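lol forgot to send this yesterday, sorry. struct tokens for the thing we talked abt
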């Protein structure tokens, strides 16, 4: 499961660029800074490599390992 904390996201979209499985899209949902936050549209393709979680400069992403 992927969780994004919208309040921490600053819209750099590093997560979108870095994900090897193109899991994220830019959603139309905005946070209180009027930033469109990413959404894990293709979460089923996630290989839980944690790259997005590690590279997000604002620790806005949490990727739970699949059981
Ligand atoms: S890397 Fe983090 S701060 Fe940047 S767009 Fe993704 S969730 Fe937001
Ligand atoms: S954990 Fe890896 S595969 Fe899954 S969304 Fe993040 S970067 Fe993409």
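and heres what i got for the seq, position by position
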């Amino acid at each position: 499961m992927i969780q994004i904390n919208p309040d921490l996201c600053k819209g750099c979209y590093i997560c979108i660029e870095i994900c090897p499985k193109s899991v994220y899209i830019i959603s139309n949902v905005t946070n209180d800074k009027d930033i469109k936050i990413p959404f894990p549209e293709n979460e089923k393709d996630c290989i839980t490599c944690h790259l997005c979680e590690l590279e997000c400069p604002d620790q806005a992403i949490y990727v739970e390992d699949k059981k």
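The pocket of iron/sulfur cluster (ligand 2) is lined by residues 2, 18-21, 23, 46-52, 63 (CB under 6 Å). anyway ping me if u want another try
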